[in-house]
Design goal:
Elements: E1 7-10, H1 30-38, H2 40-49, H3 59-72, H4 76-83, E2 88-91, H5 101-117
Parallel strand pairs: 1-2
Length: about 120
Amino acid sequence: MGLNKCRIHLDGASYHFHKTAAKPAGNANLSDLREWAKRPDVKAWLDEKGYSIPDNPRKKDIEPHVKAYVRDMTWTIYAIAKQYGGHIIRKTPPYHCELQPIEKIWACVKNKVASLTD
């Protein structure tokens, strides 16, 4: 008996959300881009999309593929949710205690500590 199509509400904390794969930096040099293009996951993605990169590529040959790769990248949490039953992930806005009970608890703790140190 598993759970199907659960709605999972997470705050926007960065530790909840990671990209499925690393991308080269925006200012990456040609050698970094060539190394990126040789990675097995990138090669598989290029093959799947029908893209090809020349044997001795220039930066302008690789950059469009990097942009397309970044557009196709997804957050790991969404991939996991989809893999295990198509769950729905929702992000709540930051610092809204009405939507994030931990914010209200944290405010109470901070007030209590402040009252003890006065």
